[in-house]
Amino acid sequence: MPNIVEITNLTSPELDVFARLTEAQLRNRAEAEKGVFIAESPKVIGRALDAGYEPLSLLMERRHIQGQGRDIIARCGDTPVYTAERALLAELTGYELTRGVLCAMRRPTLPSVEDICANAHRVAVLEGIVDSTNIGAIFRSAAALNMDAVLVTPTCSDPLYRRAVRVSMGTVFQVPWTRIGNAPEEWPQPGLARLRRLGFKTAAMALRDDSVSIDDAALGTEEKLAVVLGTEGDGLSPSTIAACDYTVRIPMAHGVDSLNVAAASAVAFWQLRVR
């Protein structure tokens, strides 16, 4: 039977996860295994459930209980479903719910770099990218263009932030990913050395005079290639570029100096894919 709970008190502690905890607080609960993230919209929640993620509670507009949220409720067993009208939920969360459904889910234990790269031939490495929208868009491109994995550096934004998950359309649950290092000093040299031990050549996406074009034939012959993308604005750090095997540029026209990192990732993933 669905466990439907009508919201009568906006200050109820059971609603903290949706209303009063920051993304950082959700991620850093007292014990790592109790970390939580928020998935938004039935499609995104469905993809998380398909991937085996554990639902903890749902927040849903009342009209969606027998509508677009019905299948999600059926899949979540006795998980509590907190419900109210749209205006009250917006007052609670501070924003309009996308498709009227949120789900608090248990954070997974991340695999090791070695595990997710064991059979990989093309991986993306995201260095210090802080905009959640860009993170989500990169994951969507990685899924669509068949990248084997995504690695995020210690200073990179969390792929399970609500906005990143939503913009990815749930593909963050489909592409294997993990962190390559947990402290800033573990990137770039230790992380790049780790990739080399796994057999990867590294390609730094950067606009430099000594860079090769993204359609350079040598890139396509690499059996294992890690495509390294840098933060918004500044791009990759000079030490990262210097330590990579290739420096790669996307040729620009009409005086445009560069693409947004999310757009650049799509071009790079397509051109550098395994053929």
Structural features, described:
The protein has twelve helices and twelve strands. The strands form two sheets. A seven-stranded parallel beta sheet has the order 8-7-6-11-9-12-10, sandwiched between helices. It has a five-stranded mixed beta sheet with strand order 1-4-3-5-2. The model has no long low-confidence stretch (mean pLDDT 92). It is 31% helix and 20% strand. The protein has helices at residues 16-19, 23-27, 42-50, 70-75, 86-93, 113-117, 132-144, 162-167, 189-197, 217-220, 238-243, 261-271; strands at residues 3-6, 36-40, 55-61, 80-84, 101-106, 122-126, 149-152, 177-179, 201-205, 212-213, 225-229, 246-249. It is an alpha/beta fold and 275 residues long. Helix 7 (132-144) packs parallel to helix 12 (261-271).
Can you describe this structure in just a few lines?
Helix content is 31%, strand content 20%. The chain has 275 residues and is α/β, with parallel strands linked by helices.
